[in-house]
Amino acid sequence: MQTTLAKPNLKPLLEIAARDTGGSRRVAQFLLSLWDGDTYRCDVQAVMYLDAPVFDDLLGLWRFLYNTNTQLSTHVSTDQMAPIIDAWGAAFRVRPNDGDR
C-alpha cells in the first residue's frame, strides 16, 4: 500500500531563514545545505537548538525529501532561495581549505 505524502509548507521555513536571528541562522544553514551541499555545510548539532515546532518542520521537510527521493531544488525556486543565500550564504559557504570536514 502506497501512501500519499503531503508536501510540507515551505513558506514559513523560507521566511524564518531570511531573517537575522539565531533560529534563522540554523534554519538557513539547513536549507542551504539541502539546496547545495557541495557549497554550503550544515552543523546538524546546531539544528537541535531550534524551537520544537521549527525543528519538527525541518524534520518533516527532510523526511518528505527522503521519501519522495527529491531535492529541495525540486520544490523551491532560485528566486525563493536568493534572500537566504544573500543573508547567510557567505557564513556557511565551504572554504577551499576546509576539506571534507
Q: Mind explaining what this structure looks like?
A:
This protein has helices at residues 11-17, 22-35, 44-47, 52-68, 78-92. With 101 residues, it is mainly α. It has one domain. The longest helix is centred in the middle third of the chain and has 17 residues, at 52-68.
Brief overview, please?
This protein is 56% helix and 0% strand. The chain has helices at residues 11-17, 22-35, 44-47, 52-68, 78-92. The relative contact order is 0.21.
Number of helices: 5
Tell me, what's the shape?
globular
Low-pLDDT windows of residues: none
Q: Quickly count the domains.
A: 1
* Structural Rg: 14 Å
Give the helices and strands as they follow along the chain. HHHHH
Query: Which bin fits the share of residues in helices?
Result: 55-70%
Q: In what range is the share of β-strand residues? A: under 5%
Biggest beta sheet summary: none
Instruction: Indicate the structural class.
Output: mainly alpha
Mean pLDDT: 91
Report how far the terminal alpha carbons are from each other.
40 Å
According to DSSP, the number of beta strands is 0
SSE layout:
Blueprint: H1 11-17, H2 22-35, H3 44-47, H4 52-68, H5 78-92
Helix pairs in contact: 1-2, 2-5
Notable characteristics:
5 helices, single chain, mainly alpha, 56% helix
